[in-house]
Amino acid sequence: MSPTQIAIALWTLVHKEIKRFMRIWPQTLLPPSITMTMYFIIFGNLIGSRIGDMDGFSYMDFIVPGLIMMAVITNSYSNVASSFFSNKFQRSIEEMMVSPMPNWVILAGFVLGGMARGLGVGLIVTIVSLFFTRISMVHPLLTIFVVVLTSALFSIGGFINALLADKFDDISIVPTFILTPLTYLGGVFYSISMLPALWQGVSMLNPILYMVNVFRYGFLGVSDIPVVWALSAIVAFIVVLFGIALWMLDRGKGIRS
Amino acid sequence: MATPALSIRGLTKVYGNGFHALKGIDLDVQQGDFFALLGPNGAGKSTTLGVVCSLVQKSAGQISIFGIDTDRDFARAKYHLGVVPQEFNFNQFEKVIDIVLAQAGYYGMSRSEALPRAKRLLGDLGLWDKRDGSARMLSGGMKRRLMIARALMHRPKLLILDEPTAGVDIELRRSMWEYLRRINREEGTTIILTTHYLEEAESLCRNVAIINHGEIIRNTSVRALLTELDTETFLFDLAAPLEAVPQIEGFEVQQIDGAQLAVMVHRGQRLNDIFAALGEQGIEVVSMRNRANRLEEMFVTMVEQGNADLARAAAAAEARP
């Protein structure tokens, strides 16, 4: 395919993915907005006022970046996982497989679609948070860079999950039993400096901690871990997972008999 | 001779459970042909087409599409290929127009080029009025036509249809046949189809391959195949029921019910002799027709012969010390 044809194919797929989650917005865009509003009201306003400051900031200000990141992670992941698996289930993935589209375009199309939803929900949550606090960004470019990378990473994760899934249950196992616990334990609601040394060490094995921290650094200018280290880890994860996803796609894992 | 539209050499497929779906088949389909791939369920028809379309991974063998080796440049070969699978494989919740436009996009067609093409194809196939409706609202026949429109969006030179008229009513089937004949005749599109309706193959196709147990057991023209037909069975509807089966010298006669006879006619025998014999016995014939489609009769014979050979071979292997 020529570069122009590849661009058309990629845009077709991305456009289709965006149309899909916009068509079903009560299932894709509305629920995270409501959930995050609840978090802001309960944890930020009601309980947060009794917790006091965290790392020198009000508890509400402290949790806003983490909650935005949580929404971005879960929505990026679940969008690609459910959309790609649905394509597998309805066999409409064959439309793409019989076409001359390279596999990396298929992967990139779904990942960009997941990012569109993840970042879209992130934006909605950010707007909602403005009703509860004043947001300031110390490092706006870094903030945007990190959230885009994180969204890409979890979109790729959702793609791999969908490739391996045989039934709909298989695409809810990872978000329920891995992603949610890691996100909650990834410093969204607390600073790991509050933990005993042992658990601080254990927390450092949680990749989501790095993303939440560097994102919070972009907003507040404080982080539990070095920013460069966190950024390098995210980029490394993206490169490795993209490679794995492409390798699986090239071998027809989960889609070719 | 022009490069074949499709050339298959030594194609083998062994599934993960050890089942040998294809046992090294060779097949050539010439450009412009209307070709039927026939075989009973599980014979290997869909697997063959699945490998050609890249939906199934081959275990061994070579495939060329218009001379392009799929191992070397499958992407380029795919531009020549349009696929209409057996099962509906589009997103049922999408609009009809979105489905065909997306397919064009996957082939790198711009929207300005794809839209007039979609209008023409959906119009030709009677779906233009349904373009803004969800695909799940279409009837079964419309869904099949949607898959044909989708497969033709990028102007493929080779169209592969896996049982395209399964579950389609007779009237719609005939209109689909006419459409396929038209694109074969007017646009020179090479068409390969698998079908269970042997009448379909006889009516549409010039050449045919019969596959059974993963092997091509016959590959010839439909005309040549029919000339080999040794026996045909004719049904005679009678004016009045008979109490006993009439004897007709040289013919095998069966009574289907009181007023219907089945007569087996071998090559070289004359129908006039049957009418004469029945007339002599005072039996009046109201109408006459073939019991089965002619090709079907031959197909059943071949497949049964193949199955019997296989059973004999298995028994012989079993009996070996």
UniProtKB/TrEMBL annotation, chain A:
Origin: domain of life: Bacteria
Report the InterPro entries cross-referenced here.
ABC-2_transport_permease, ABC2_TM, ABC2_TM_bact-type, ABC_2_transport
Its transmembrane ranges are 29-47, 59-78, 104-132, 144-165, 171-190, 197-215, 227-249
Q: Where does this polypeptide localize?
A: Cell inner membrane; Membrane
One GO location term (cellular component): ATP-binding cassette (ABC) transporter complex
Keyword entries, A-Z: Cell membrane, Membrane, Transmembrane, Transmembrane helix, Transport
Q: Name one GO molecular function term.
A: ABC-type transporter activity
What membrane topology is given? Multi-pass membrane protein
Q: Does the keyword Cell inner membrane apply?
A: no
Entry keyword Hydrolase: no
Residue ranges annotated for the ABC transmembrane type-2 domain, each copy included: 23-252
Stored PANTHER family: INNER MEMBRANE TRANSPORT PERMEASE YADH, INNER MEMBRANE TRANSPORT PERMEASE YADH-RELATED
By sequence similarity, the record places it as follows: Belongs to the ABC-2 integral membrane protein family.
Protein name per the record: Transport permease protein
Annotated source species: Franzmannia pantelleriensis
TrEMBL record, chain B:
Q: Which UniProt keywords apply?
A: ATP-binding, Nucleotide-binding, Transport
Q: Record's CDD domains?
A: ABC_DR_subfamily_A (cd03230)
Q: Which residues cross the membrane?
A: none
> What PROSITE patterns does the entry give?
ABC_TRANSPORTER_1, ABC_TRANSPORTER_2
Q: Which domain of life is it from?
A: Bacteria
Domain annotation ABC transporter: ranges: 6-238
- Pfam families cross-referenced by the UniProt entry: ABC_tran
Single GO MF annotation: ATP hydrolysis activity
Q: Which InterPro entries match?
A: AAA+_ATPase, ABC_transporter-like_ATP-bd, ABC_transporter-like_CS, ABC_transporter_ATP-binding, P-loop_NTPase
Identify this protein by name. Answer: ABC-2 type transport system ATP-binding protein
| Provenance organism | Franzmannia pantelleriensis
